[in-house]
Amino acid sequence: MNESINLLVPFREFSLSIYNCRNKIEEALELFIYSTIFFIVFNIILFYLIHNYRNGKSKFRFFRSTKLPENVSRVLLVTAHPDDECMFFGPTLIALKKKNCRIFVLCMSRGDYEKQGHVRKDELWNACKCLEIKAQDITLIHCTQLLDDPNAEWKVELISTLILNQVEALDIDLLITFDKDGISQHKNHQALYYATASLCLSGLIPSTCKILILETVNIVRKYLSLFDVLLSLLLSTNWCIVKWHERNIIQTAMQLHLSQMAWFRRLYIIFSRYMIINSLTELNVESIEFDILES
Fold first, then answer.
1. Considering only CA atoms, which of 113, 114, 68, 106 is closest in space to residue 84?
2. Concatenated DSSP letters of 224-257
3. Phi-psi region of 132 (alpha: psi -120 to 50; beta: other; left: phi over 0)
4. For the chain, which ranges sit under pLDDT 70?
5. pLDDT value of residue 2
6. How far apart are alpha carbons 77 and 93 in whole angstroms?
7. What is the pLDDT of residues 54-73, one digit of tens each?
8. How many Å separate Cα 2 from the centre of its chain?
9. pLDDT of residue 27
10. 277: helix, coil or strand?
């Protein structure tokens, strides 16, 4: 009898530990669910507030829908491929248009990776028209040294020359391009950053021209859509958060790149925070040196 009781003791202890473990898992799951609901609701409320509190022009940081450099009127967006302008920079372009800026687009390739460059050229013009960018303000480079290829090493010196020529010829006071991670680690995107950084380090960019680079976020934030509002406001120095109907304009522009409408890009259009939020950092000598030390 005593032997039977002794055998049951470990079993009871094991059962009790399983029961306690299950309770802890249930508590953790419950906390996760409540936290997720709170996070979602809070971001929706914040999104509503920044677009309705004093028309998004409040002096308070958390109630501004847009925070960009003041007194800029001529903007140059430097992209690598047709569709970059609305796939990644749509909110910024919408915000700049509302500030009555004239926007120039410098696209470094025809996007001929799948031999569709002649088609993508027209798609770029159509998408820019949807974003209210004039055809005469678009420059599309067709150069054998700048092939659309994620494995191609674009020459920084060539890109730097092309960018500087546009900045000087068009009297640009705000230059916008990718950061060193290029959103998706695409080498063509990254080359634009290094070319711009080299111009900045060499002091060739006019002192009147500010430079903003689009921040790359991790894969989770990338697909949070408007639920990345709080983190963008907390972690960024410059940002653009468009209204829901303005997001629809960006999506429409992206859909005009018909040759690129694979199923995964359709999902991107629905879920990507780049369709509704852009967070940007000002590029200067100090930030470039920090990037060099970090790498």
1. 106
2. -GGGGHHHHHHH-SEEEE--HHHHHHHHHHHHT-
3. left
4. 1-16, 19-20, 54-60, 289, 291-295
5. 47
6. 9
7. 665 666 677 889 999 999 99
8. 70
9. 81
10. strand
